[in-house]
Design goal:
9 helices; 2 domains; Nucleotidyltransferase, domain 5; homodimer; 5-stranded mixed β-sheet; 35% helix
Amino acid sequence: MKGLLGGIEAGGTKFVCAVGRGPDDYRAEVRFPTTTPDETIARAVAFFKEQAEIEPIDAIGIASFGPVDLNPHSLTYGYITTTPKAGWQEIDLLGRVKAALGLPAAFDTDVNAAALAEYRWSGAALRDVDPLVYMTIGTGIGIGVIANGQPVHGLVHPEGGHMLLRHDRTRDPFDGCCPYHGDCFEGLASGPAMHKRWGEAAESLPIHHPAWDLEAQYIAEGLMNIIYVLSPRRIVLGGGVMQQQHLFPVIREKVLAMLNKYVDSDLLLETPEHYIVPASMGNRVGTVGAFALAEKALKA
Amino acid sequence: MKGLLGGIEAGGTKFVCAVGRGPDDYRAEVRFPTTTPDETIARAVAFFKEQAEIEPIDAIGIASFGPVDLNPHSLTYGYITTTPKAGWQEIDLLGRVKAALGLPAAFDTDVNAAALAEYRWSGAALRDVDPLVYMTIGTGIGIGVIANGQPVHGLVHPEGGHMLLRHDRTRDPFDGCCPYHGDCFEGLASGPAMHKRWGEAAESLPIHHPAWDLEAQYIAEGLMNIIYVLSPRRIVLGGGVMQQQHLFPVIREKVLAMLNKYVDSDLLLETPEHYIVPASMGNRVGTVGAFALAEKALKA
């Protein structure tokens, strides 16, 4: 590789643009609010043009908020599609960035990019972390999936936050807050769900508040379904709610209890702390994931 | 391709061996009971040796009952591992067949092979059915998954039959019959679960018996979780219970109602009959899936 990689984390609230080659070679970054598409894309393009004068950039990756069109055979490939974000419906984000910079570019969801970052730079042999699931639990719940070396697309893209979980209304009479499904995973366990159920923000609830055991229970049930459907070799948990490090041992314990030794794997049974792990890249996971997408664009 | 492909469906009750090139070029087949490993493997080997005198065989695929070791870097790759089937624990099925026939051979679970058969010979462009999930609902519930062109392995392999579903005990007081998890998917919706709950075999229950609406509900909930985790482009349902064709429209209707238009896909919303489909190969899906594995062995 000669030049640098450019990464865009395109969020509904802010854009983060960076250049570098990975989590340990992260050169420069800019963060700015997401306003209109014209203004926002122009700011991103200007950043990469400036950076390219310092050191050449070979390719760009875009990790985008959604929903997005990931089907390379579709006329709207690379578009943000039906988002509620005003002004951003049917915006050709990939096409505009490519045209303005004249560089190879790749595009995926923010969570698939985060999964790719954790996969590419896990420190383990890739085969030992394949499949890998990245789950973010914060304002919403999203999952990214790598299987057989590539992000999983499909009908749309994984939407693991909407799984149906068991909901014991005796223990938890809260109806859930997903506008589509009420008490799906996100409706029961996202940050806003916790806030609404307990009447205060999740981060202000003390460690011994019963909120956390219930939260760990829902997360563990969501992971159970993922383990049964996909048999991942690594599960990475990120997002605002997962800043609560005390959740990890409780989640692992509940997963093992529910599996009841059905899945015969030493990795999971003996060293669950190497199986269900915290996100390793903090607030750079989006841009570093975008670097990994840029690498793919370069190889393609 | 010059010669034929050999396929073994290695089941706990019977072995099926066949030669051919696909579902439309299926030359010869033999079925015999699964007795001791020595005797059973010898009969399979003898069949392929006889067939090879008629027309050469280039490679062998084995679609096996499990649990199996699918990790090519493991010392027990290709083994049937901890099965309750007497005499079959820690049997090197792949190695013995390869050594006896001197041919390239590939190995996977019976459900992954079935998924591969439905993927390889779907009649659609491969990208239009990727990811593909094959689910069998019969004595047990199993899933096979193809993603990014290859079967998904992982920690072990997909075990979708053990997902946790919602269980409304007012509607269905049955405790479930899974020895590990009680009322998981398989514990509530397998053939034996139906038999135990209703006091008669599933196939003898009339079409308008309430058993079928409940069964469709559980299957639809299982599919919902698979759709959210993997976003498959095709779901194929096979196995004894799914011989009940009247289940299909009810399952599709329940899936669409529960999704509540969250997944924005014309394929799913407009033509669910092309999305959730019956298995297409009847009782040849195992051996045809094994042909697809043999093809992979030849390419590798």
